[in-house]
Each structure stands twice: as C-alpha cells, then as structure tokens.
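Task: fold both queries, return tokens.
Query 1:
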Amino acid sequence: MPNAQSKQPFLSVVMPVFREGAHLRGFLAAVRSSLEQCNLPYELVLVDDGSPDDTWHVITAEAKGCQALRALRLSRNFGKESALCAGVEHARGDAVIVMDADGQHPPSLVPEMVRLWRDSGADIVEAVKRRRGRESLSSKLGAQLFYFILNKLSGFHFRGASDFKLLNRKAVDAWLKMHERNVFFRGMTVWMGFTTVQVPFEVVPRSAGQSTWSVLKRLKLALIGITAFSSFPLHLVTFAGVIFLGISVLLALETVYLKLAGRAVSGFATVILLELIIGSLLMISLGIIGEYLARIYEVKERPRYLVEESIEPGPPQSSSGEISAQ
C-alpha cells in the first residue's frame, strides 16, 4: 500500500558527465545532501557522454550504494547537449533539475530552486549567473558578444543564462516535443515561454581537472544557438544582393554616361554592367535558396545519441534514504 510520502512530487536531477571521475563521488555526495533538505523523493540521472577515463566505473560503484542513482552510458562522445537530452528523456520526476557535474553549478542552490517551484507555481526555475567566475578575458568577451548577438537576433533575453534549471513536468513534456538535431537547451527553454522565475548564483571553480570546452566547441554551440533561433543570417545574403543591385544601377548609369561622352574604354562598359548585374542576381538567388533550405534543414533522422549500457535500479529515492512506494 503506498505510503503518504509516495503521493508527494518527486525530483529528477539530470547530470551530463564527461571526464568527471576524479571528483564525481564528492560532488554526488553534495548533491544528495542538498536533496535531503528538500524532503521529497528523488532520483539521480547521470549520463556518461563517452568518457575515456574511469567515470563509468565510478558511476557503477556509486549506484551500488545509492538506490536513487540511474545512469546511461552513451556509445561515444555525442556532446553535452545530446547527453542532456538523453537525461531529460529518461527522467521520471514531477520536476527535473538539470545541472553540470563539474561542480560549477552549486548543489546548495537546489533546495531554494525547489522551494521557488513549489511556492510560486512557476513552470521553470532558472539559475542565472551573477558572475561568470574565473575565466580568460577572451572567453568573457566571446560570451558577451555571443549573447549580445543572440539577444538582438532572436528577441529573447539570454544574459546570464545557464543550463542550471528546474522544469516541471509540463515544461519537460513540451520540451520533449521539440526534435531538433542541433540542440541548444537554454534557448529552447526560453522559446517555450512558460512562466519562469529566476534565482541568481555565482559560478564556482571546477571541483577538479580542466574544462573540456575548447574554443571550437564554444564556437560551434554559438553558431547552433544563433542559427536555431534566428534566420537573419540567411536574410543578409538577400539584403546584400539588393544593396549591390542598387549600387550596380548607379554604376551602370555612370558607365552609360561615360560611354556616351566618349570617355569609356572600349568594351569596359559592357563587362562592368554584366558583372554587376550577374553578381547581384547571384546574391539574391543564393538568399532565396537559403530561405528554402532553412525550412528543410533537418531532414536526417539519425538519433541524437546511442546508449551502450544503462543502470536501472528501480523506484526513486526518498529523502530519508528509503525507497518510496509507487
């Protein structure tokens, strides 16, 4: 017979993991400690994104002593966004908390996020960066430039945004209906438009090791974010073609005038006019083609990720350390 605790909402904490074996035990202990303060049943959903170190062995060992821990091991490194998708798709909670496993998303903030969710009735609780923490000047400037461009082009506000969020089941189910192959999680949650409350936090240093986010990975994510939420880059080609067509008309008039005045080099007027007109038409044509490509871009139906093995211990863990009845 289900006890009273089983009727309470329960939480899923989703963590993409990559090369975190050195500090994962300590971080999971901190997360569990924070979840105990929520006095709700919970589960931990870890997704090993093809880590080449001992991360999966650490997860397996942790699962033996923690009934709440579920885990997926992807067949290779698909990237953080794909690993995040895997975790959210397998989460069973009434609320799903997404956080990084490198320690930069403080577990101590989890009880406050849960309190805001329950008290405010909001669909999403978003942890917003008050400070970005220690990083190079180039990384800070690059992030500011990216969010400035994305804010202007998309019309959404992304300043201080992070992947550290709590989504209720309605928001999770809506998110699962989006089947983009190029995933930008923080942008997709903003796009949904559900009621959102924010809680500030400061990015803390990594628990151990170094970030695996290279400049190329950051640039790729930035391009995905911009192209996924704005078609303006496609319009640029068309706009440029129209502008150059206007310039070509003015130059054509000047060239014709010089020809009639007898000051043009023989054959020069014809060549210039043809190049200007053809170049402008090509740019406009590319812009039109781009518009159609934007509508048929995601035609491949490959899965976002492949699971090699998984750990499925059973029902979610209660805050007292017991298994709650379902």
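Query 1 returned. Query 2:
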Amino acid sequence: MHGIKDAASEFLASTRVAVTGVSRTPKNHGSNNVYKRLRERGYEVFAVNPNADEVEGDPCYQDLKSIPGGVQAVVIGTRPEIAEDTMRECAELGITQVWMHRGPGAGSVSDVATAYGRQHGITVINGGCPLMFPPTADFGHKVMRFVYAGKIPKQV
C-alpha cells in the first residue's frame, strides 16, 4: 500500500486512459467532466459506454477490449455494481491502474471490485476524483479535495 498522492501521481502519469460511464446527455455528469478535463490536459482519453457510439463529439467504445491499442489506466464512473464487471475486464486485459470515481454522491466505489482488483495486482484508488490532483486539478477540485477529504482514501 502507498499514499493517495503517490497513487494519484502514478495513475495520472498514464497517457492512455479510458473513462467508463461517459454519458450521451452530459449536463454535470462526473464521468463527462473527467473525460473532458483529461482530454484538455493532453491525455489520449477514450470514452466507454455500451449504449453510445459517440459522446462529447468523440467515438465511444462499448467496452475496454474494443479500444484500439488498449489503455494504461481506467476511471470507473458507473454504478458500483457495474464497477465489478469493469474491474474483472481490467484484470483480463492487464490494466494495472484503476480509479473508482466518487464525488459528492455515492459514486462508483465497490468494495467487492476493490478487493478483486487488488487481489489481481491492480492499484485501485477507491474514492475521490482524478481531477483533485495535479496535473489535472483546478481550484474548484482542490477545494473539493479538502471538503470531501473523508471520502478520499489515505492509502491504496
């Protein structure tokens, strides 16, 4: 186990990142916000939603295995019960960096998915948001990191 800052830094050092749960009707949807910010910061980012062919003006993939060339890291932004299947797919594909998003609400964190991922050698960040940490952070997310400190794991 290591601290959240180190884990976040390792995760955000990945250049090819998939974001699951990106919505066709974004509004204030957390996955869409993460997707757009990573794209703006120069990441090669891939949207995953089995019910969409396009989101945010970009191609959308049905699952992780459909992404050409694969990815190094995954942000899970779906319901917790879907996170379990996504974690299994990450293990099958050899993806070793997974962040289960949790903002103000219940988020995507699943204890079962977390345990499964860690048992299979995946570094799992089970809470918080990648936008709370450099180089993707903005002022608002830095404040959220402080306000929601109890929902962000200290060790992963």
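Both queries returned. Flag for query 2: The chain has a mean pLDDT of 91.
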